[in-house]
Amino acid sequence: MEVIRPYLFGHDDPDRAGMSVTCDLDTGILDLVVRGRFGRRSATDTFTGLRKCLAEHPAAIVVDLLGFDDPLAASASMWVAINRKAAALDPPVRLALAVAPGTPLWERLARLGVGRFFPVQSTPAEARAAVSGTLPWTQRLQLIQRAPDELSTCAARNLAGAACEAWRMPDLLHPARIIVSELVTNAVEHAGTDVTVTVWRRGAGLHLSVRDGDPRLPRLLDASSGAPGERGAGLRIVGARATAWGAMATRDGKLVWATLRGARPPRRSAGVRLPPYEHEQHGQREQQQGQHRAGAAEEEDHHRQRDVQQHAEQQDRGQRTVTG
């Protein structure tokens, strides 16, 4: 069985040069601060870091660019490209930027009209408020375990099971219980601190996270290692069953997460009560029409963003040609 490698955000992660990431457990929003001068290396590092963030499938990502130096506004097309990737997820991840007014990047984003696709505000607080008011309705179950022991794993499995039962996700019940069990076991054995287990509903999938007070990030062992009791042995099970998984350092420890994707539930039709056979046909027609309208709108928005991105990239190539 294929084992997925983790997405790691550590304090000494080279991909985080000039970038800091924090997670709000109450809202599911990731806050990024990007600093330094924009160039080829920083573009690669920033894009790699944001790809890691999207793998976690947060509710939204707020990017603070107030300390970001981009005198030619050459990063504009990158932000449009990132938003396209975020919007293509199910459910979509909202992106918001905080850019200093009057800077070249602020003015170019305004000329490109990116405000039609994602908010660009002058402060991180305004950017967060812009996405907080439009986030999709989510559900969350949380368990805080003080001085966790071997029984904590059982309690975490029951939490994941209750979430799958309440949200009607029977196909995710078994893998969710296994994954959260391994994550909590790893925290109990190696961290020895209080543990917070959170289960979020993400559309037709789940986001599982375990937070502890140990800053050391998990390490995935090779299959040939076989070292008993060594950190990372149980995490191969997580990597084999999760859609994606990873960890990030926090101010007081770390957060280890995993996502699971399930089948999208059929949309329920509302309105007049119909006989069973007519209700089924009506529901199928309504579902098909709704999916067609939603798909057409998403495709149109996708094409518009692609056009904006391509236009910005063409401008960048022309600018480099003139400069050269």
List the helices and strands and how they pair.
Layout: E1 7-9, E2 19-24, E3 29-34, E4 36-37, H1 40-56, E5 60-64, E6 68-69, H2 76-87, E7 94-98, H3 104-112, E8 120-121, H4 124-132, E9 140-145, H5 151-166, H6 170-190, E10 195-202, E11 205-212, H7 235-241, E12 244-250, E13 253-260, H8 276-323
Parallel strand pairs: 1-12, 3-5, 4-6, 5-7, 7-8
Antiparallel strand pairs: 2-3, 9-10, 10-11, 11-13, 12-13
CATH fold type of the largest domain: Transcription Regulator spoIIAA
What fraction, in percent, of the residue positions are helical?
40-55%
What ranges have pLDDT less than 50 throughout 5 or more consecutive residues? 267-274, 276-280
Order of helices and strands: EEEEHEEHEHEHEHHEEHEEH
CATH class bucket of the largest domain? Alpha Beta
Major β-sheet strand ordering? 1-12-13-11-10-9
Total number of β-strand segments? 13
For the CA atoms, what is the radius of gyration? 22 Å
What's the N-to-C terminus distance?
Answer: 51 Å
Mean pLDDT: 81
Largest β-sheet summary: 6 strands, mixed
Strand residue content: 15-25%
Structural class given helices, strands, pairing? Answer: alpha/beta
Number of helices, where a helix is a run of at least 4 consecutive DSSP H or I residues:
8
